[in-house]
Write a structure and sequence with these properties.
Layout: E1 6-8, H1 17-22, E2 29-36, H2 39-50, H3 61-71, E3 78-84, H4 88-100, E4 104-109, H5 114-118, H6 129-141, E5 146-151, H7 159-168, E6 173-177, H8 184-191, E7 195-199, H9 205-213, E8 218-221, H10 231-247
Helix pairs in contact: 3-4, 4-6, 6-7, 7-8, 9-10
Amino acid sequence: MFEPRLALASLSGEADAEWAAAGANLAGAAFVGGITLDEPSREAARKLTERDRNEFLPADPLAFIKSQLSQLVDVPITAGINVRTTTVDPVQKAAAICADHRAILEINAHCRQPELCAVGCGERLLADSGRLTTYVEAAAAEGPAVSVKVRAEVPDADLPTVAQQIEAAGGDIIHVDAMDSEGVIKDINEATDLFIIANNEVRDRQSVETYLGYGADAVSVGRPSREPAGPVMQRVAEAVAAWEVTVK
């Protein structure tokens, strides 16, 4: 899917093309976003900014996605776009842009902010798998690789089952914030053939080896990606490189 098998996870209101390019010397993929696409999700994002959270709120979200991906055309990294929406049409349009730029479209079923959950975005999708799979099907029909970012430890959500539904709908990747349930990576690996990106407290060789030992195909980092030359990114990149040598 991408190499090296280290991804930069989206940081709300911060993860843009410049951020992705800054990490390209270490990472194989970067997920720009999250970007809210329709009016209900954008209104929720506006409420988040009122309590000092960073959010991308361009006048035209689809034009913003196209601009961001255009800036990464000559950057040696696989780009992804993490999106949030309450309706399917914007997902399809964003996926078409991603397909044109050979980028990954990532559906956000991960955010847990109350404002977003109240309108049906983020982790609420894990309990509404019918709507989630509709989004996956619509995105996959446009041709890009499709990822879904999910969170472990969400009540009423069985991630291996959700992963199977994502795969059946045409998804390619599941990006898992494992929280304190690292073993869920093993459960998903046994349940599907999806490409698994493991996230949460990936900081050193031990954490990388733990996730890869459970069957992850790659790992991702969030906050440390703000400092691509920092010690955490260097440790993780070295651990991923060492692991890649053993599997080739």
